[in-house]
Amino acid sequence: MAKAEKYLMAAVLGWPVMHSRSPLLHNYWMEKYGLTGIYVPIAVKPEGIGPALKALHPLGFSGCNLTIPHKQNALPFLDEIDPVAKKIGAVSCVAVREDGSLLGINNDWYGFIENIVEAFPDWRADAGPIAVLGAGGGARAVVHGLAERGAKEIRLVNRSFERAQTIADEFGGPITPVRWEERANALAGCAMAVNATSQGMQGMDALDIDLGELPIEALAADIIYIPKETPFLAAARQRGNRTVNGLGMLLHQGRPAWKVWFGVDVEVTKELREKIEATL
User: What is the Rg, in whole angstroms, of the alpha carbon atoms belonging to the chain?
Assistant: First the structure.
């Protein structure tokens, strides 16, 4: 348990960052668990991530979350990278040790899986093929999580076929890279489709995909939570698919972060979800 005499601090580093609901999430837990501290958003340009990370220890931070565009470009500035994060090739959480060294962790895959299971307890990753759109840090975490849960076929679709191929080569297992022009056909026979791109995020163009080949019984998931329903999810819902947005992924990835930062086990409650949903 964290010491009461220490003012606890953590942050989210991103560019942009002010849209993030992470401060609302973590400051809710600060109050709920009776800790004295704060969680703040810090806007860090891509070229500034190294100095920003090195400043965490002198400033007294216990750690931070990383969001776009830092999940991959932070890797060279960390002293140690957790084996799972190393495999994924992206870091979503940094823990500051007492000696000032920095440990990189990836909690996104955990948050993604917990979000799906919370929404649909009977969900199984091995129920059929899964199409994942995107090949960035978020997509890498999603693919890892699905593989860990026993997915037998993951169709990885990306605008850059080479990036999708790289993930398939690095991860091994049931990953088949698919060219962007074949994205609509890649949905045929799928039990699940995941938007792991930034397309559909507030201020961004919608994901350009025809859902005609996606079976009605398939689950459509998005890692985006602003807006609460992306055009991709709206289109899926309107045709009869079950859907789940990325809010639960945000909520659940925070749990292991608190354990490593402050030694505290936290819960995702209905009250917490409603509190954050009200701001979306």
Answer: 18
Enter the tokens of residue 17: 């960052």
- DSSP letters, 61-111, are --EEEE-TTHHHHTGGG-SEE-HHHHHHT--SEEEE-TTS-EEEE--HHHH
Distance of CA 116 to the CA centre of its chain: 12
Instruction: Kindly list the catalytic residues.
Output: 71
CB 213 within 8 A of CB 184: yes
Instruction: Give DSSP secondary structure letters for 135-192.
Output: -SHHHHHHHHHHHHTT-S-EEEEESSHHHHHHHHHHH-SSEEEEEGGGTTGGGTT-SE
Architecture in CATH for domain 8-106+253-277: 3-Layer(aba) Sandwich (3.40)
Give the count of beta carbons closer than 10 Å to the beta carbon of residue 172.
8
Q: What is the CATH number of domain 109-245?
A: 3.40.50.720
Structure tokens at 196: 């792991």
CA distance 67 to 71: 6
Domain spans of the chain? 8-106+253-277, 109-245
Q: Please give the chain's pLDDT, 280 residues, in tens.
A: 444 578 999 999 999 999 899 999 999 999 999 999 999 999 999 999 999 999 999 999 999 999 989 999 999 999 999 999 999 999 999 999 999 999 999 999 999 999 999 999 999 999 999 999 999 989 999 999 999 999 999 999 999 999 999 999 999 999 999 999 999 999 999 999 999 999 999 889 999 999 999 999 999 999 999 999 999 999 999 999 999 999 999 999 999 999 999 999 999 999 999 999 999 8
* Residue 149 burial (10 A CB sphere; 0-12, 13-18, 19+): middle
